[in-house]
């Protein structure tokens, strides 16, 4: 049982993009940041429900498969779930459609008004809570029933869990692009690597997969 993080970051360390507009809610930079992941067969199957068998099957895909393996629960922030984009919509159900890719209990951290859990198709249930990282992790570990807990994002929540030293395995997929602004994963993290064994592997796409294991 491990607490895992998988994040896509730019060469200059940014885990968020800043060029969203009402017309383009994801912006152009998001597709630049995640293009190698989105191109994988696993992403196409698991997130887009594309059963054609298309998509890359190399190093990026091996990491994408690992994102979902042995997962028992997920934790994410209000930003990643979309509550900051749709603060006044009590029926907002996340970005992932009727059948989200998680297929496990997902704990959404928010200071907002209490929301009832939302049960989705395929095994995902979103639970909303206001709690410290330690408390949220205890709930997720209980729900995970011996499997791993993934802290899915966004940048703020991942940084909080890293600072609280709750992460056993941090995998960053470093896209060979520069974003220049946003929330940088590494700020104030001096010496983080000393708690971990660090390995790296470069994919065919040019993405560098860096893994910190406790
Ligand atoms: N690069 C990647 O791989 C990746 C992965 C996932 C997401 N993202 C990106 O990350 C961005 C979102 O990240 P973000 O940093 O803006 O937001 P976030 O980390 O998803 O969420 C932060 C928010 O969650 C709530 N929160 C955090 N800790 C809490 C606690 N202990 N108790 C209660 N509520 C708590 C607060 O919102 P309230 O106070 O408003 O409730 C806080 O502002 C998106 O742009 C998304 O695209 C990137």
Automatic annotation (TrEMBL):
GO terms for molecular function: 5-amino-6-(5-phosphoribosylamino)uracil reductase activity. Residues 3-188 form the Bacterial bifunctional deaminase-reductase C-terminal domain. GO terms for biological process: riboflavin biosynthetic process. Pfam families: RibD_C. This is Deaminase/reductase. It comes from Intrasporangium oryzae NRRL B-24470.
